[in-house]
Write a structure and sequence with these properties.
alpha/beta, single chain
Length: 83
């Protein structure tokens, strides 16, 4: 099977039990969360928004299998120093 191109390839939507996790160091506005969720609603992924300072507990609470699931992290930071 040829490799997927574009966003599907970048986010590896072909992986079983796929998660796309948006991690931020600030509270994302609700309209932004809704908009991204709608844009990915037809994609073969589960979408989750997490705060960087509480990432692991939030992933576990959402049911992410940290040993077996494919997790694509999309990081949004307010300052470069927070990397």
């Amino acid at each position: 099977m040829p490799a997927a191109r574009g966003l599907s390839g970048l986010l590896n939507f072909g992986a079983e039990r796929h998660w796309t996790v948006f991690v931020s160091d600030f509270a994302l506005p609700s309209p932004d969360i809704r908009r991204v969720g709608q844009q990915l609603s037809d994609a073969p992924t589960r979408v989750l928004f997490c705060r960087a300072d509480e990432l692991k507990p939030q992933l576990q609470k959402a049911g992410v299998d940290l040993e077996n699931d494919y997790v694509s992290l999309q990081v949004i930071l307010s300052k470069f120093d927070n990397i």
